[in-house]
From TrEMBL:
EC number from the UniProt entry: 4.2.1.10
Catalytic residue positions: Y24 (proton acceptor), H101 (proton donor)
Record site feature (Transition state stabilizer), residues: R19
Residue ranges of the TM segments: none
Lineage: Bacteria, Pseudomonadati, Pseudomonadota, Gammaproteobacteria, Pseudomonadales
Species the sequence originates in: Pseudomonas capeferrum
Descriptive protein name: 3-dehydroquinate dehydratase
Molecular-function GO terms, alphabetical: 3-dehydroquinate dehydratase activity
Keyword Kinase: no
Length: 149
């Protein structure tokens, strides 16, 4: 059985493609999901790719990942900068977490420089667009291979 990685996307990421294209590019969420699925296939991983605009739903998905998934790739969107609850849920999952942002949050408004997730993540990737998701999946594949060896 292939390891399962949960790929989570927070609020407003369903608007990709039309939302602030100078920040987030022209790729849609469906394009992003397809790119992740292709990478996962090549890396020998299974993924579940999800997006929600409801914080409680995201937290329920994180809880349900515990013991079922091998890792969580998360772009928490604006909740990155506001949500202790998402950070706590990620810690409770006891899973390795990689935080990904399409844009370089450090080049943007100061309120985007704080992340409640970064300090509990294995790593953080930002500013590389959808390539960041593929890099994160590749890291999970390497990490899980090393653990299994
Ligand atoms: C984002 C950056 C966040 O600051 C913003 O609120 C988003 C998207 C990114 O992917 O660059 O919604 O997480």
């Amino acid at each position: 059985m292939k390891p399962l990685i949960l790929v989570l996307n927070g609020p407003n990421l369903n608007m990709l493609g039309t939302r602030e294209p100078t920040q987030y590019g022209r790729e849609t969420l469906a394009d992003l999901a397809q790119g992740c699925a292709d990478s996962a296939h090549n890396l020998g991983l299974d993924i579940e790719f999800r997006q929600t605009n409801h914080e409680g739903e995201l937290i329920d998905w994180i809880h349900a990942a515990r013991g079922r998934c091998a890792g969580i790739l998360i772009n928490p969107g604006a909740w990155t900068h506001t949500s202790v609850a998402i950070r706590d849920a990620l810690v409770a999952s006891e899973l390795p977490v990689i935080e990904v942002h399409l844009s370089n949050v450090h080049k943007r408004e100061p309120f985007r420089h704080l992340s409640f997730v970064s300090s509990i993540a294995v790593g953080v990737i930002c500013g590389l667009g959808s390539h960041g998701y593929r890099l994160a999946l590749s890291h999970f594949a390497d990490m899980l291979r090393e653990q299994a060896a």
